[in-house]
What does this fold into?
Amino acid sequence: MNFFFVTISNKSVALKCPSVHPLFVAVALVFIVLFGSLLPVFAQGNNNPSGFALPRFVSVRADKTNVRVGPGTQYEVAWIFVKSGLPVEIIQEFDTWRKIRDMDGTEGWVHKSLLTGRRTAYIAPWDAAAEIPLRARNGAEARVRAWLTSKYLVSVDNCDGRYCEVSVQNPSSEGRASYSGFVEQTTLWGVYPNENFN
It folds into this structure.
């Protein structure tokens, strides 16, 4: 048996260890030196090209946006967004390409230049019968300015974790052209529960 002496907090401790062949020690040291130097490279592999956290919500920048089956123009177009401002969730990044998910759960790849950090959201797309109050202030007692139905698209200005301040366009000729106010954050697809941002 060989003994190794280890100093811990200014005290030496003797450890018993069976004999180790010098070749084994040499191979282990080479392995540590070669692959230990690659650890920072592997750690960098976990960083996204954009430097932003995943997943995250953004919106579609252009009226015509090709969504592809893979990250590059050599891949087929899976479908096309035909309206700007629609919310999508970025779930993966590869170079300048972003894998997105729409509100129906469909996934595809879009070039980053076709997306914007402007936040938008859908009102309760999971409930076709939803009627969500747009309130004058962020509280359940605040006056209702309008009722928003399922899949209504809103622009999101900020969220405090409970309520989001939003603005909406009125497509009908009745009433005002636009409204702004507050909706409960849990009624939106396009923001995360308890997410805070300005």
Summary: The two ends are 66 Å apart (CA to CA). The longest helix spans residues 22-36.
